[in-house]
Amino acid sequence: MSWKKNKNFNTRQKKAVWKRRLICVALIFCGVCLLLLPVQLKIWKLKNDLKNYQRQEQELLAKRKEIIKQIDYYSSDAYVEERAREELGLVKPGEVPIRDAVPGRVQIPDQNAVIGD
């Protein structure tokens, strides 16, 4: 009988040792997870920031293209001529300007306008 009791005791001891090892491994794993959690949270935050900055970069590049187009247009001869015609009332030699009549208002002819050839 003592042999059977000794065998059961050894089996129980082995199970207890394995339980302790499993608990130790679980505690170590939880500790490592707790240590790595703040690092992982920072990584996720940085990735989110990176996406936001990339989106902003795309928006700024599109805005830059639009501004470059406006600069090209405003520095073109066509724009200068358009502004001269609209704001200053200038005409090319030989042109007769045609303006819309405003009801109830007399318009004085421009000095630049050619009257009858």
Helix and strand run: HH
Computed over alpha carbons, the radius of gyration is 43 Å
Overall structural class, as computed from helix and strand content, comes to mainly alpha
Beta-strand percent range = under 5%
Helical proportion?
Answer: over 70%
Basic shape: rod-shaped
Compile the SSE list and pairings.
Layout (H helix, E strand, L loop, with lengths): L1 H73 L2 H11 L30
Question: Describe it for me?
Answer:
By secondary structure, the protein is mostly helical. The protein has one domain. The chain is 72% helix and 0% strand. The chain has two helices and no strands. The chain has helices at residues 2-74, 77-87. The protein is rod-shaped and about 125 Å long.
Question: What's the short version?
Answer:
The protein is mostly helical and 117 residues long.
Tags for this model:
rod-shaped, mainly alpha
